[in-house]
Specification:
Blueprint lengths: L4 E5 L3 H13 L10 E6 L1 H14 L5 E5 L15 H7 L1 E5 L2 E7 L4 E6 L2 E6 L5 E7 L2 E9 L1 E5 L7 H4 L11 E7 L10 E4 L4 E6 L6 E5 L2 E3 L2 E8 L5 E5 L5 H8 L4
Parallel strand pairs: 1-2, 2-3, 3-17
Antiparallel strand pairs: 4-17, 5-6, 5-16, 7-10, 7-14, 8-9, 8-13, 10-11, 11-12, 13-16, 14-15
Subcellular location: Cytoplasm
InterPro entries: ATP-NAD_kinase_N, ATP-NAD_kinase_PpnK-typ_C, NAD/diacylglycerol_kinase_sf, NADK
Catalytic activity: NAD(+) + ATP = ADP + NADP(+) + H(+)
Length: about 260
């Protein structure tokens, strides 16, 4: 192989065993020197790898092999012909979201999200939120357990479980999906162009505290959350041609 490869594995026994096999079969570089990363694990581990790349401002492609549970974002685990698979792999660009969360104390936290940004009530009290798009209030009051903004890559995860729409890769869209909406009861969310700037303001934050989560990273007691697509830091996932992500997302719409 002329491409410098790095190998990362989740701490599960299955992933560690696969890592040992591949390390004995191929030459590997460190993450800092690699042109491409092979990740062994499940979807959660792949998200960890992608977040690591965002923090390091490193945009090398990632080829995941499933040694987890679901593996929706992963390729099939096979130890043979890795160089051939990587040469044939189809790239998909993933644009992460940027969450800017302002707490009730005025602290500002900026975090990336590859799947979704979600707001969730912290107590038994429902959340009350004001929803704005591009500085225009489109919903003065949403009473709910929460709300989330999902990318196409994340639309089949938490978003789908909350009855949100599945978004094809390359659609240029975001899903804005309520979680157990109480008022307006019949609002089921919206599909937005990914150029939209979403602002979610917490109403009555002292009485009805809300937390904000960017993938797995939480900020508690938020007063306002702004969400927008990061146009600077694109990520690249690699897939076997027969297991391309866009085809998986399409077929997921027909799953029972």
């Amino acid at each position: 192989m002329t491409t410098r490869l790095a190998l990362l594995a989740s701490p599960t026994p299955q992933a560690r065993a696969a890592e040992e096999t591949l390390r004995a079969r191929y030459d590997w570089a460190g993450v800092e020197d690699a042109d491409l990363i092979v990740a062994l694990g499940g979807d959660g581990f792949l998200l960890q790898v992608l977040h690591m790349l965002l923090e390091r401002r490193n945009t090398v492609p990632v080829f995941g092999m499933n040694l987890g549970t679901v593996g929706f974002l992963m390729n099939e685990w096979r130890m043979d012909e890795l160089d051939r698979r990587l040469g044939r792999a189809k790239p998909f660009r993933v644009s992460p979201l940027t969450m800017t969360a302002t707490t009730m104390d005025g602290e500002v936290r900026v975090l990336p999200a590859i799947n979704e940004v979600s707001l969730l009530r912290e107590t038994r009290q429902t959340a009350k939120l004001e929803v704005s798009l591009n500085d225009r209030v489109v919903m003065p009051e949403l009473v709910c357990d929460g709300i989330l903004a999902a990318t196409p890559a994340g639309s089949t995860a938490y978003n789908l479980s909350a009855n949100g729409p599945i978004l094809p890769m390359g659609s240029g869209m975001l899903a804005l999906t309520p979680i157990s909406p109480f008022r307006p009861r019949r609002w089921r969310g919206a599909i937005l162009p990914d150029k939209a700037r979403i602002t979610l303001r917490v109403l009555e934050p002292d009485k009805r505290p809300v937390s904000a989560v960017a993938d797995q990273r939480e900020v508690r007691d938020v007063a306002q959350v702004d969400v927008a697509v990061d146009r600077v830091r694109d990520l690249t996932l690699l897939f076997d041609p027969e297991h391309a992500l866009d085809d998986r997302i399409t077929m997921e719409q027909f799953a029972g």
